[in-house]
Amino acid sequence: MRIMIMTDIEGVAGVSTPTVDTSPGGSNYLISKRLLTEEVNAAVRGFLKAGATEFLVFDGHGPGAIDFETLASPAKLIQGRPLPPITWLIEHLSRRVDAVCHVGQHAMAGIRDGNLNHTQNSVEVLAYRLNGRPIGEIAQFALLAGEFGLPHIFLSGDTAACREAEELNPRVVTAAVKEGLGRTSALTLNAQDARALIEKQAERALKQHLAKPIPPLQWPGPYVLQKCFLHTEIADSALGASRFSMPDSHTVEIRGETIAEVIYQ
Ligand SMILES: [Zn+2]
User: Fold this and answer.
1) Dihedral of CA 67/68/73/76: which sign?
2) Fewer C-beta within 10 Å: the chain N or C terminus?
3) Regarding the domain delimited by 2-218, which CATH topology (the fold level of the hierarchy) does it fall under?
4) Maximum distance among all alpha carbons in the chain?
């Protein structure tokens, strides 16, 4: 069993403050990278106990946030910037993976109790909707993986991110390592307890999946992705391709027959 671990930094225990904790140059950023990496290592330990053998860790936070030297064996790291488009990467690597999960994930933009909630660009995006349904980064990745036949089996993050994952698929196993008190504050587990919880839940997720496989997340097409931006010039600049339109001055609409055609456009 081979697992791809998509990582982000905003859903990690002990990471709660924008910039200071989440951006290169922030006074806590190097600590945040280590906290994320140790949560990834905890997930690897849990999955190993359940029988997984290979791990592709996707360094998903914008500037990269995995502390390479402390990433545990036998994980391999997808790293570098800029990365190839994620749709190409997932298609390219899908034959080397059997299931996907998230570690350190946050809720979609606009969720009040989602600590560090955002969707992709934290200062520009108000909301994404896919076929009328609000989505965030969790659905983006789970649906793309699902299109290539890969089930989304586990997520760690704050309680709002866990809830969002469970709403997409009630059988996903989650590990809530902190509660958002607001967008820039959280009640967080200590690092040791967060890692222990992730390890236990990752093991449980894979054991449950092996006993009764979770199907890949797939919604019926065709697809219309609406991206609503705070400022109109962002929407303006996204125009130009034939599948794009602008239903109002803040919104770009992208149409496609497949998830890959729309979800990270
Ligand atoms: Zn993110």
Assistant:
1) positive
2) N
3) Rossmann fold (3.40.50)
4) 51
Q: 95 near 84, Cβ under 8 Å? A: no
pLDDT tens-digit readout, 23-40 = 999 999 999 999 999 999
Non-local (6+) Cβ contacts of 114 within 8 A are: 106, 107, 108, 158, 160, 161, 164, 180, 183
Buried/exposed code over 36-74 (b: 16+ C-beta within 10 A; e: otherwise): bbbbbbbbbbbbbebebeebbbbbbbeebbbbeeebbee
Q: Give the closest residue to 108 by CA, choosing from 83, 80, 85, 130.
A: 130
- Ligand 1 centroid to residue 138 C-alpha, Å: 9
Q: pLDDT per residue over 8-19, tens digit each?
A: 999 999 999 999
Instruction: State in Å: Cα 256 to ligand 1 middle.
Output: 23
Is residue 156 within 8 Å of 43, Cβ to Cβ?
yes
Distance 124 CA to ligand 1 centre (A): 13
CA–centroid distance, 17 to ligand 1, in Å, is 14
Structure tokens at 260: 């890959």
- How many whole angstroms from 119 Cα to the centroid of ligand 1? 6
CA 230 to ligand 1 centroid distance, Å: 18
Give the tens place of pLDDT for each residue, 111-162.
999 999 999 988 899 999 999 999 999 999 999 999 999 999 999 999 999 9
CA of 260 to the centre of ligand 1 (A): 18
Predicted TM-score (pTM) of this structure: 0.96
